[in-house]
Amino acid sequence: MTLQPSEREISLIRKILEVLSVEIGPRFGGTEGEHRAAFFLRDAFEEAGAPADLQRYGFIGWELDRPPMVRVVDPDVRELRAAPIVYSSSTPPGGVSGFVEPFGVKRLIPGLYEMQTFAVRTGHGDIAATLVDSEAADAIPLLNPDPMYREPLIAIATDDAKYLHRMCSNTRVQVAVEMDARLVPDSIAYNVIARYRGEPDSDHRFVVNAHYDTQLDTPGCYDNASGVAGLFGLLSKLQEQRTRVNVDLVAVASEEIGLIGSSYLARDLVERGEMSGIEACICFDQISAGERLWLWAGPDSLRDKIVASARRARLDQLGDVDVDAPMKGCDMWPFWVEGIPAALFMWWRLADYHRRTDTIEKVEMGKLTGCVEAAHYLLCDLAGIHT
């Protein structure tokens, strides 16, 4: 039997999608947009009947003051489509110039984003900047896995990367590069932690999380207002079914700049001695569109259960289903590295990912509510509840 979404569940989901992606819009880590979203979500959880707290933390943030520019100046003149990789450093005033050479592979997320790079070398042989093939028709902002290493690090469109490969095989290619960005030492963000207690006498609980921040300059409906809306859909289903589980529903901040919010959440649970009571972490990320359902889960026993839950919710009728082990690319990862079973629901991938066109009109409600239903089945299975 499938659990069709109720009118209340659909209403909650639509409200979250509308406010986050339309009324608030871009919610980059540490910005006013992210803060507005945090306070809205706290109040929305409270109104939905789940007590919620803001978990405030400080971190070293980053701001882009001027978008990057990459221009070929010899032997052709050509402007390359460019976007920042977050936490990149600025070029010196006036920019830098140098000769391009294919360099290697940048593993932004091992197993997920492994991208060809080019070094921009000065006449002294120093690397003045690194260009990364974004594997997109136009360059899109991406996270930086090693922000402690300071250099101009710029994503370029894949057609421009192919052009550089072709040119570099025959001649020396000179480029000029400019970017203006800075660190923000005292940035603030908030995880929003709501609590559903269907078995209040038990110390054991589950964490279900989704990030509410966005990449630069995108309304982020697919990535990831959809996942946060999924939290509210799941809350509604838990309440309506009176499911006897304890769940922390957490809207986490600052995922797009390095899983900062979920890492803080997990560290806090470890330091307070509460991580041992977490049965599993389930993550919603990008669940409203895409051609294939990509499930990440571990250990193997959980992998079998998430596949069964997806089939029971008939998600396999909406697209192909692929299954992988956990990777360092979503907010269940900090729990997985602490030894907690972890799973991800994700539809991969809307073409508007990390773009201004990631808007509410692209939502496929059946995929979103199907992930909510599957997550409810999974929670019940993990808790030993017959449904």
Provide a concise account of the structure shown.
With 387 residues, the protein is an alpha/beta fold.
What characteristics describe this protein?
single chain; 387 residues; alpha/beta; Aminopeptidase; Glucose Oxidase, domain 1; elongated
Description:
The protein has 387 residues and is an alpha/beta fold. The chain folds into two domains: 7-61 and 185-383, Zn peptidases (Aminopeptidase); 62-183, Glucose Oxidase, domain 1, CATH 3.50.30.30. The chain contains eight helices and 14 strands. It has helices spanning 7-24, 32-47, 158-168, 221-241, 260-271, 300-312, 333-336, 365-383; strands spanning 52-74, 78-80, 82-84, 96-109, 113-121, 127-133, 153-156, 174-197, 205-211, 246-252, 278-284, 292-298, 320-324, 342-348. Helix 1 packs antiparallel against helix 2 and helix 6 packs across helix 8 (365-383). The N and C termini lie close together (8 Å).
Low-confidence spans: none
* Global mean pLDDT: 96
Total DSSP helices: 8
The shape is elongated
The secondary-structure element order is HHEEEEEEEHEEHEHEEHEHEH
Helix content: 25-40%
The CATH topology name of the largest domain reads Aminopeptidase
Which structural class do the helices and strands define?
alpha/beta
Distance between the terminal alpha carbons, to the nearest Å? 8 Å
Q: Work out the strand percent.
A: 25-35%
Main beta-sheet annotation = 14 strands, mixed
Specify the CATH architecture of the largest domain.
3-Layer(aba) Sandwich
* Count of beta strands: 14
Tell me the CATH superfamily of the largest domain: Zn peptidases
